Amino acid sequence: MTQDPQEAVVEEVEPPEEDHLAFSRKDVAAILYSVDVGDREKLVELMEPLHPADIADMLEQINAFDRMRLIKLYDKEFDGEILSELDESIREDVILALHPEVLADAVRELDSDDVVDLIEDLDAAQQSAILEVLEDSDRVAVEQSLTYPEYSAGRLMQREVVMAPEHWNVGEAIDYLRATDDLPEQFYHIVMVDPKLRPVGNVALGRLMASRREILLRSLIEDTFHVIPVTRPEAEVAYAFNQYHLISAPVVDESERLVGVITIDDAMNVLDEEHEEDILRLAGVGEESRLSDNTLETVKQRLPWLAVNLLTAVLASLVIAQFEDVIGAVVALAVLMPIVASMGGNAGTQALTVAVRSLATRDLTSSNVWRIIGRELTVGLVNGVCFAVVMGVLALFWFGSPVLGVVIASAMVINLVVAGLAGIGVPVVLERFGVDPALASGTFVTTVTDVVGFFAFLGLASAVLL
Amino acid sequence: MTQDPQEAVVEEVEPPEEDHLAFSRKDVAAILYSVDVGDREKLVELMEPLHPADIADMLEQINAFDRMRLIKLYDKEFDGEILSELDESIREDVILALHPEVLADAVRELDSDDVVDLIEDLDAAQQSAILEVLEDSDRVAVEQSLTYPEYSAGRLMQREVVMAPEHWNVGEAIDYLRATDDLPEQFYHIVMVDPKLRPVGNVALGRLMASRREILLRSLIEDTFHVIPVTRPEAEVAYAFNQYHLISAPVVDESERLVGVITIDDAMNVLDEEHEEDILRLAGVGEESRLSDNTLETVKQRLPWLAVNLLTAVLASLVIAQFEDVIGAVVALAVLMPIVASMGGNAGTQALTVAVRSLATRDLTSSNVWRIIGRELTVGLVNGVCFAVVMGVLALFWFGSPVLGVVIASAMVINLVVAGLAGIGVPVVLERFGVDPALASGTFVTTVTDVVGFFAFLGLASAVLL
């Protein structure tokens, strides 16, 4: 029935199926209580309505001790999908905690692309333990996928593809589909291939259903068709899905032969992970950082970035140290100087974040980079003048010194213009040199604004006030 | 053919279709040249292979003058999909630049959900201009969608749904689909409904194809089935799609009747926008910020956040001002104090970013918040002690003062512990009060670390050194 649902007729009453929402704190408490008292039956009953993704989230949220006890008690109910939803940081521990037979059953349930995702970060011993329990055909598929580079389309794709020769008509395709026993669990398109098995177009199942039997498949192919080389980085795959609204896309090897298919749900997952990396890198946190990491892991991730920050902070202090005389003479400078640096750091971070994000979404390209640099300079100038006036007046009334007002106003303009330039320039240059701009830009930019801020303010002050 | 593609037989040769990759700088230059010389034929030829999403990107990247000339020259080739791919910031200008008839044709090509997305941000006059050119049924659909709250599932869904009563078998469903003229362009599931039109399950088209005619639809429904209330915020819809790997999900009104369906490509788009908002908000840039904004627009977005930052920077300066005496006596304090504040700000931002991201992905919940707070405190303590030792030794050698070394070491420990606490505490508290933690946390946290850093360092110094 495709008519507007509002118009249809009511016949008989039956309640709608419950939708599975995320678990509440109460649920977790009840589950942990059942673990505490060792009530396996109750545990299974409480876990039964939860989606594997939610169970994985819960396992990440409870502590390691409860997690291990829960897994032991849950035992053979443990589902393979929970494993593939788990954060890498605790996946290894969970695999070790599972009874080997439970693990084998859990892994055998998974699609080969999920198994690849599951084992690619495990150590060799765990990898072969899992590979051993797979059926031969699955093991070969997984091993073949593992030969593709990490984070490539080859790791992301599923190898089972529904395809048809391009000369088929709708009737032949439908008859073929209805006669085939081993169609994949999920597929949305038939990939049309030429005789060399090179993909030439996608036909959506819906279009197929809606068309007369004698119509040629080639007349039903979708406008947007995107073929993905097997070595393409997964981040670019996700970009293509998002940009072109793809639902599934064929993957080809170097001779352009079809070797697999990627579906949008996997691409969405990659997009989400890429965002996570960007946001964590911008903040100077290791991109592998997880909430489920323990204290030691967290310290190890954050300490290097703090060490870099310490170096740059010391650099800024060395600038200040050049002006000890004038600070000793006019202590007000020590009071005001952090304002200039802080405003510069903030303005720089603003420009930087927009630039990093625009580079990631490919909105900032060589076609518009000079115009955007011009814009950032102008914005820095305008904001600089605004805050120069405010700070000039503030300094005048606070310390009763017009000269100090002029000094801080000038330093403010200089630093905000530099902040705009550094905010756009640093990520663009890093990207040109093949460095992820999200990774290192923040430190560079705030170093620049600190050094320039202190130097401009204290330098001007010592020129004028000493 | 579902067999492994590697095994299939080669029959005849034909080249694969070109895939449409993003345009290069050269393409843009060639297009702009054709606009310069007014060569319409060449322009159309150059634009023809480009995907509407890429054309929209290009229109965003070139300047306003070139954009208008290009649109005038391209004229009636202008595709509706380009409009729906355009950033809101320039969409209005483009609509104004289009010839009314071209606009009418462009809009009529679009699905009703794309029209909604297109017009929801236009002013009333432009809205009704577009509504007027739609066919009656489309206009009613669009107007009805506009009655749902902005950023709700109701705005996101498409109203055309393929559904079937739950008592049907595969044969009935297939016969029905093949007999129906107006199936939607894209659909991947049949929604099974009870007689009150309440959705009870999804059957994937692939499953339907693979099953015998006499099998009941209800035995084919997917494990994961998620019903979305029409008023649910689109951010939560995107979360559900990503969490549960949904491909499409039925949308219901308050009486639980089916009113539409949301597909994963729209959810992916929302996920992408939500990430953009998070990252821009964290940096104190208006979340509506676009690379295509002009200078004035950009100043207006960034100035308020810089003003907030100025207030907090002045607050920190007021703390410093309390210690003018000790700074005047020991100028080394002015040199070292930014280091303490900077390290605190960085450590706070690290903890904060992980917390904001974890709240967004619902990994940080009431089940684990206390454990994570404990972790952040410990991490702050460990990092604090590490850098306290480094800075203590550095200050000792730099200024030859063991007392100064002890003072900065102590201040470092205090500030990094506070940074950890503020970094996790501020976003959690904001979230409890219903404020987007990405929006305001950064300023709060760095204010805390600046104030505490200066106060601890200078306060200890004046207690010990004066």
Task: Provide an overview of this structure.
Chains A, B: One of its GO terms (cellular component) is plasma membrane. Chains A, B: One of its GO terms (molecular function) is metal ion binding. Chains A, B: Acts as a magnesium transporter. The structure is a homodimer of 466-residue chains. The first copy, chain A, is mainly α. The first copy, chain A, folds into three domains: 19-147, MgtE N-terminal domain-like (MgtE N-terminal fold, Alpha Horseshoe); 163-282, Roll (CBS-domain), CATH 3.10.580; 295-465, SLC41 divalent cation transporters, integral membrane domain (Tetracycline Repressor, domain 2, Orthogonal Bundle), CATH 1.10.357.20. Helix content of chain A is 64%, strand content 6%. The first copy, chain A, has a three-stranded mixed β-sheet with strand order 1-2-3. In chain A, a hairpin with a 5-residue loop joins strand 2 (189-193) and strand 3. In chain A, helix 15 (264-282) runs parallel beside helix 21 (437-465), helix 18 (332-360) packs parallel to helix 20 (402-432) and helix 18 runs antiparallel to helix 21. Chain A is globular. Chain A starts with 24 loop residues before the first helix and ends with a helix. The model of chain A is unreliable at 3-21 (pLDDT under 50). At the A-B interface, helix 3, strand 1, helix 12, strand 3 and helix 13 of A face helix 3, strand 1, helix 12, strand 3 and helix 13 of B.
Condensed summary:
With 466 residues, chain A is mainly alpha-helical.
Topology:
The structure is a homodimer of 466-residue chains.
Chain A: H1 25-36, H2 40-47, H3 52-61, H4 64-74, H5 80-85, H6 88-97, H7 100-108, H8 112-119, H9 124-133, H10 136-146, H11 153-156, E1 163-165, H12 170-179, E2 189-193, E3 199-204, H13 205-210, E4 228-229, H14 234-244, E5 248-252, E6 258-263, H15 264-282, H16 295-321, H17 324-329, H18 332-360, H19 369-399, H20 402-432, H21 437-465
Parallel strand pairs in A: 1-2, 4-5
Antiparallel strand pairs in A: 2-3, 5-6
Helix pairs in contact in A: 1-2, 8-10, 14-15, 15-21, 16-21, 18-19, 18-20, 18-21, 19-20, 20-21
